[in-house]
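Data deposition worksheet. Section B asks for the primary sequence of the deposited chain exactly as it was used as input, without tags or linkers unless they were present during the calculation. Section C holds the resulting structure in token form. Section D is free text for depositor observations; keep each observation to a single sentence. Incomplete worksheets are returned to the depositor.
Section A, Depositor: J.P.
Section B:
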Amino acid sequence: MSLDIDQIALHQLIKRGEQELELVLRDTLLATNEPVQEMMAELHRAYSAKSKGYGAFNDDSELAGSLRLCRKGEEDFLAFSRAATGRLRDELAKYPFADGGIVLFCQYRYLAVEYLLVAVLNNLSSMRVNEQLDISSTHYLDINHADIVARIDLTEWETNPESRRYMTWLKGRVGRKVADFFMDFLGAAEGLDTKAQNRGLLQAVDDFTAQAELDKNERQNVRQQVYSYCNEQLQSGEEIELESLSRELSGVSEKSFQEFTSEQGYELEETFPADRSTLRQLTKFAGSGGGLTINFDAMLLGERIFWDPATDTLTIKGTPPNLRDQLQRRVGGK
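Section C:
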């Protein structure tokens, strides 16, 4: 992995009481030795694989102001990270769920792009067995389950300040209030709505195939083609590009997919991140509620699975063998 660390600092927040957080600030930057390189490579991989929100600094962001001074050389990175950790503590202290953790600031380069990554990591305890088979306690950073992480694309921020997507942060398991305190600390607001972009893409694909007057199988083949392209982009860490997707769909209609989306006003960005959960709807139907969870391939609708909208009834012909076995045992045990 071509990841080069420029500067990295660690600090700590320790919970002392119900809402008291003690600051422990390092006096020096971390040395960029092999363990630190491996830790950052793991954090970079874990972060890149997760669902993210996209946005930008607010005009009055204190963090942005301090970061500009740091980038100009008017403030050193260690002083920047120490002051920012203090502000983070102040934001956290406003909430009853305030907890401690290791606060990490890392400026690094990956594929010719400069980033600043900010994270709050849990420092957990575990057990280890040494070469003499003795057991002792050890501490480790829970990187794979980190959910309070943000990354600023410094290159885009400085070369394209009008962008609304140079900052990303993790979305998903983090509660709303947790997300609020971190966004307040960053002084940021959401810019690009990736789910809305992906939902717009799905609608455009359905409308595009309808206008081309494709039959059911042809439409599903196009959806599968779109899903395959988007999934490849997702797996490689690349964004969906309308122009390249349009080339993938050449031959479906006399008009290109990109022209169609532009003329119909779908307001899709030329490039935007893929959202895994939304894209699954291209090839699958899924839903849960009231103790029921259903997930099936879209091709089965109208063949083995039938929906009656008048009665809101789903009829399944041919149940999976393992489900059938469970049903037979339960019915036979009455």
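Section D:
The chain is about 40% helix and 30% strand.
The longest strand covers residues 3-15.
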